[in-house]
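Dear support,

I submitted the protein below through the web form. The confirmation email said the job was done, but the results page showed an empty box. After a refresh the structure appeared. I'm attaching both so you can tell me whether what I see now is the final result or a partial one.
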Amino acid sequence: MVRNLKDELKDTAVTAYEEVKRLKKEKEITWRFKGNMVQYEFNEETVDILKQIEWSREYGKDDNCRDLVTEACEKEKEQIDTYRGYNRS
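What the results page shows now:
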């Protein structure tokens, strides 16, 4: 139990570090078009979900893994709908 807690704390610290790194990186980027920024943010969110899925599988958190897969699918559908909306204009 203590080992699981240590692992979770370590993963939380790594996640926080990655978030800070991402925010610093975002600050440095200047976007030529808003669509590029939107796509970049979508990709970043997708990568974060995939990392969480990987962690969930590693630690046997199947329910969490299923929820994350569902979330990723919903985000992908939203992105496709958004893209279709831009192309209709």
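Response: this is the final, complete result; the empty box was a page-load delay. The helical segments are 2-28, 34-58, 62-88.
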